[in-house]
Hints:
The complex is a heterodimer of chains A (about 325) and B (about 450). Chain A has about 325 residues and is an alpha/beta fold. Chain A has one domain (about 35-190, about 245-330): Rossmann fold (3-Layer(aba) Sandwich), CATH 3.40.50.1820. In chain A, about 35% of the residues lie in helices and about 20% in strands. In chain A, helix 2 (about 80-90) links the parallel strand 3 (about 65-70) and strand 4. Chain B is mainly β. The longest helix of chain B has 6 residues, at about 325-330. The chains are: A alpha/beta (about 325), B mainly beta (about 450). The interface of A and B includes residues 5 and 15 of A.
Amino acid sequence: MDLRQSIFKPGNVQLPPLDDSTDSNSAHLKPLPWSNYFEDKQNVSVGDTHFNVYSSGMANTSGPVFVFHHGAGHSGLTFGLVSQYIYNSDPSHITVVAPDFRGHGDTIGENQDNLSLDRLVDDLAGIVDAMFPDNKRHIVLVGHSMGGAVVAHAAASKKIRRVLGLALIDIVEGSAMDSLSAIPAFINARPQTFRSVESAIRWHIDAEHIQNRESARLSVPSLIKPISKEDDSKVWAWRTQLMPSQRFWRGWYSELSRTFVSAPTAKLLVLAGTDRLDKELLIAQMQGKFQLELLPAAGHTIQEDLPQRVGDVVLSFWKRNQPLDISAIRRVNPVPS
Amino acid sequence: MESERGWKFTQCFGDKADLEDVTEADIISTVEFDHSGDYLATGDKGGRVVLFERSDNKQGCEYKFYTEFQSHEPEFDYLKSLEIEEKINRIKWLKPNNNSLYMLTTNDKTIKLWKVCEKALKLVTENNLLDGDRSPPPDISHLRLPKLVPHENIIAAIPRKIYANAHAYHINSISVNSDDETYLSADDLRINLWNLGINNQSFNIVDIKPANMEDLTEVITAAEFHPTSCNYFMYSSSKGTIKLCDMRESALCDQHAKQFEEPEDPASKNFFSEIISSVSDVRFSSDGRYILSRDYLTLRLWDVNMEKQPVRTISVHDYLKPKLCDLYENDCIFDKFECNISGDGTHAMTGSYNNYFSIYDLTGAGDDVMLQADKNAFRAKRIQGPNGSKSKVGIPRNGRGGLRKEDIDPENIDYNRKILHSSWHPRENTLAVAATNNLFIFTD
């Protein structure tokens, strides 16, 4: 780009779209069905809520269970590509589970506004207990953003048993607390409604919230819901209103670093280059208390932008922390009798 | 009346491969006739200069390959970690001297003065030792004196001067002064004045760099010396202004003597107005009384004595107006089309997309013609005229069979094939037009 072009086309100039109606015709914006990425979509009732849960490999009985918790304003489909990648690496043993949480996606019930940390931790524990009663399998908890806070507390408080590993994606207490004041502005800058699902997908890609087109096509439709207007036209609005949850935000992130570091399990932190470790995490990292992976090419939703990289990282994290299988060793060299 | 008269294509140089197969280094980046019209120079993206020489035969005039040399090499600026392209941006001829041709060539950063001449190569014969294969002669009677024997004539290109390190930004123009001693070089923000004999110093005569680069809103797009008055020069900007400056007034010509700008109609202002008003090329007529300027959609002819509006405004391709949004997305809106004015000042020419280019009669008397520089032009398309006569590839703009401007569908145009560079013969109506990697010669 020469100097003249750079005057007129600085990196972030957004042209108004030519015509919203043209989006519906674009094949590259068509929503993708969940069934391309998950085997099952089921209802799990816990207390006052019927949680919508996506999963694959529920038939397996041994092997690890990867439980994914999405962040505020997202849905379980944000982990669609990653969980498919992880499941496909060993489909006869691995089980992957990605619920939609209270007030998000296709989950319905009472008290959907209660997004306090304790409530969310209890919800997660409830879902795991309902899906895996008398669980003997190892569980790997993976949480993105706000979901990371939930899984960290769930592991540290031992509300979920047999946790083999705890992975947090792009969440650091210090940076999260600092950015809380900017979140209302971010929410207000989003469009309130979209003319079509394809429009919404297009907006996410153009605004670079999701850099991976395939993942946007999968996850964005679950973030919006149709509303009929008086004139019988349809617009699409956000499924989850984030502003009402503002009173819970601070609670999600306070003491997160300490909780994370103190969890009695193997720990992994995956960050896009944009985040910095706060003091507590930095010290803990130097002490070798958790594994740190940096993926600077990604935006905030790392699992959507770079699903294979994240999948590889989580898989090798699990493999490294598997307990030793003694029986296999014993069988190799039988003592001659 | 349509007859065999009219513009017709006469020659084509370059291989006629499909656009996808073209090597990037072969793309022609500049074309220039010399002052006599006997020589034609082209520069390409690979830093090479190719010269053609005119030879008149019974069929008419013909240009033949004369010589080729590598003018610029790719370089690397270690301080800024940037590559410096070897693409030749401009070639300007100097007056020949001593049977040698002289020209200035420039890439983004460095200007070079080349001398092209014929050298007679001579070989040494009657070597006594034949590089050690023979034994030394036994006595003096067998001693042979080496002789120089004429072998062949080759055409050599020698760099005589290299004017380097004077431009922090990309050079877009050079122009030789009528005094034959000085020349100017212009980049995005500055114009320098050089003496042809001195390569380690230059004077800065225009500087529009803002104190803070973040406030940058305007760049220089082209500059040229007046053809006869050695103290005047003009430069055009991305904001659509043309400024005429007098070097006698002050050392730094930031104050213009004249400014040619047509005030914008506020009713038609939109997001693209400023971008398309940027002047991509500006030329003096050979008598210095008129200025021809090209912006994205129009060609304008200015009388040097009238600053407030052009004498004539010609729409080149108005059918692109509804497509400006797409052209912004694919960056085509930033394409820089050159314009040319004939030696006698009666005609102007400029290029467009799909390898179309148009020739306009500035006196308003004759027809305007639109042609296409296409490899299919080889099979001279015959277009039936009204009286049954057939004219060659000329596609007269005002109808009578063949394509008219009104018929062009902007959806079906190849925006990758554009006529950006061309040159008009100084003494006759012959045009050299560059279409990607091919050079077409058209004659009236």
